[in-house]
Amino acid sequence: MTKATQPANDQQRTIFVCQGTGCVSGKSIGLTEALKKAIAEKGLAGVKVDFTGCYGFCEQGPVAIVEPEGIFYAHVSPADAPEIIESHMMGGKPVERLYYKDPITGQPVPCHKDINFFSMQQRIILRNCGRINPERIEDYIATGGYESLRKVLKEITPLQVIDEIKRSGLRGRGGAGFPTGTKWEFCYNAKADQKYMICNADEGDPGAFMDRSTMEGDPHTVLEGMIIAAYAIGASEGYVYIRAEYPLAVKRVRLAIKQTEEKGFTGDNIMGSNFSFHIHLKEGAGAFVCGEETAMMASIEGKRGMPRPRPPFPATSGLWGKPTTINNVKSLATVPVIIAKGADWYTNIGTEKSKGTCVFALTGKIANSGLIEVPMGIKLRKIIYEIGGGIPGGKKFKAVQTGGPSGGCLPETYLDQSVDYESLAAAGSMMGSGGMVVLDEDTCMVDLAKYFLTFTQLESCGKCIPCRWGTKQMLDILNDIVTGKGQPGDIELLLELGEACKSGSLCALGGTAPNPIFTTIRYFRDEYEAHINEKRCPALACKALISYYIDADKCSGCGICLRDCPAVAIRGGKRMVHVIDQAKCTKCGTCRDVCPAKFDAVVKVSGTTIEVPADPIPVKV
Fold first, then answer.
1. What is the gyration radius of the CA atoms in the chain, in angstroms?
2. What share of the chain is helix, strand, coil (3-state, %, to 5)?
3. Burial class (CB in 10 A: 0-12, 13-18, 19+), 211
4. pLDDT digits (tens, 9 = 90+) for 158-190
5. Chain-wide mean pLDDT for the chain?
6. Which residues, at least 6 apart from 88, have a Cβ–Cβ distance to it below 8 Å?
7. Residue 5 predicted with pLDDT over 70
8. How far apart are CA 24 and CA 32, in angstroms?
């Protein structure tokens, strides 16, 4: 454990409180006000309170960091404010009970730089998140913000900008991984009186919050990258397409756009140049399919968000029939750094074909969940066991799902797999937009495939038959399998339908929807076979295939399970072995949860029947 150090007496101390969506939901706004109130009451002149965007460590929120010491406080509530001010700010003694505790060693770690979750990351896209106030453009400018824009407008031609991005090897971070510079070049070469630049901020994957947090924590880096991209392709109008379910991100992006107009970074003749560019904000209604380029453009035009066949590609005929370039939030956030530090610097990060860093929303059965940025080529094992802190509760790792609902599930044998576009694709998964869900031994892989397919089936726009009906038929088969109605041949039928959906769908939603099925069958076929042939769920997760029984040799007749059973499905009396009525049991698991650990009398099984007394009998002494 690193010892916390105190700043010199003449240093200004700042308590930064995270006000990303996760921490705001945990009352971090109230914490900010409580800290300010406590400082005012004590009349402290050398301490101030400010807020930032998301630090990324959502598992530990609400979060506060004291600088310049770097003391990291986790799970902080407004009620903790007086103690932080009195003990730490006035008494020089940090509040140790609020320190982060390492999930492996159990030891408290006072400074954020010593926490593996932070120290093992390499932040480029998220470089300012948690470090600046996202609602003040001056904070961004103080980090060197808009200097890259100034550089391109004063010193570099559009073609030179495109060449620099091409040499950097930057690829689209929205999921497809198409070379960004090449995309810009296509649009630059298109001849038209009007061109458009679009920022794709329509993040819709379940459990994904990479783009949202970037926009909440550092909106100006996205806008600067967008303006540079517009300059490179010759666009005079731009749109940030952001889903309305992100109200905080919408608020901060809208404010950031206004600030760029006031500072002269957008508008006519930017920074005294001949380049003019205006940015508009378009709120999406939450359709997942609108993350697809042509569906997004239809939505901006006021039409129903549905994809269209390509060609023509957006670079030649996009928004309102004009040449258009569409880039993801993370792609654009990287551009100012590449311009500032150079393509050669960027190419030293990552792998031969996958340059730079990638941002993941690390969620699921993991000790340290949150937002991480790591170099391409990092091993899954390092992400899960070092940055993520491993699997909680002593459970065994089972698989990791990457790429959101369109991605795939990789088993333990792939823990040393490199995280990059080519390696993940070869394993049957994908980089996607950056979702990473860790699964433990209690996860049923058939049920997981059903979960993701349920999402994509509901989000299908219905325009093309392979997606509209293919996802529905696959989902029907999965529902049958997890409810004990699976039949021989279902696995082969799933694979056949998946291939038809993949090859025949109009857009990537249908084309990638079968991926969770493909990979779970590829790596966990035995679980499908157990469900179909034995009517058994090995993970004891599928409710229709499990049962609860009370072990007569362990039951003490205490009556706790009988009292707490919501279905009144348990019979028995004091000092009598209790019996669960299987006809009434709803399989909620309450009986197992409340049974005292010293007895552990409730048994959960699947695919088998346990002999138990038909009626209550006296407990064994």
1. 27
2. 45, 15, 40
3. buried
4. 999 999 999 999 999 877 789 999 999 999 999
5. 93
6. 66, 71, 94, 95
7. no
8. 10
Residue 1, pLDDT score: 41
Which H or E run contains 577? strand 576-577
Residues 216/342, Cβ–Cβ less than 8 Å: no
Q: Do the Cβ atoms of 125 and 333 come closer than 8 Å?
A: yes
Tokens 């939505």, located at residue: 299
Cα angle, residue 419 at apex, residues 414 and 422 outer, rounded to 5°: 95
CA angle 418-422-425, nearest 5°?
95
CA-closest candidate to residue 246, choices 286, 289, 198, 219: 286
Mean pLDDT along residues 586-609: 92
* Digit-coded pLDDT (tens) for 46-60: 899 999 999 999 989
302 φψ region: left (φ > 0), alpha (ψ -120 to 50), beta (else): left
SS (H, E, C) 543-576: HHHEEEEECCCCCCCCCHHHHHCCCCCEECCCCE
Say if CB 340 and CB 313 are below 8 A apart: no
Per the model's pLDDT, the better-predicted residue between 373 and 403 turns out to be 373
The separation between CA 232 and the C-alpha centre of its own chain, rounded to angstroms, equals 30
Query: Which residues, 6 or more positions from 564, have their beta carbon under 8 angstroms from its beta carbon?
Result: 590, 591, 594
Q: Residue 72 and residue 123: Cα distance in Å, rounded?
A: 18
Q: What is the dihedral of CA 112, 116, 118, 119, to 10 degrees?
A: 90
The answer to whether 279 and 240 have CB atoms below 8 angstroms apart is yes
Selection from 151, 235, 161, 223 nearest residue 197 by Cα: 235
Amino acid at 494: L
Calpha distance 555→577 (Å, rounded) = 6
Q: Pairing mode, if any, of strands 237-243 and 435-440?
A: unpaired
Q: How far apart (Å, rounded) are the C-alpha atoms in residues 305 and 211?
A: 20
pLDDT tens per residue, range 215-262: 999 999 999 999 999 999 999 999 999 999 999 999 999 999 999 999
CB-based contact 401:436 (threshold 8 Å): yes
Q: Is the dihedral of CA 607, 610, 611, 617 positive or negative?
A: negative
Mean pLDDT for 393-401 is: 94
- Summarize pLDDT for 529-585 with one digit per residue, the tens: 999 999 999 999 999 999 999 999 999 999 999 999 999 999 998 889 999 999 999
> At residue 389, what are phi and psi to the nearest 5 degrees?
80, 10
- pLDDT in the model for residue 2: 45
Residue 49 tokens, joined: 């309170």
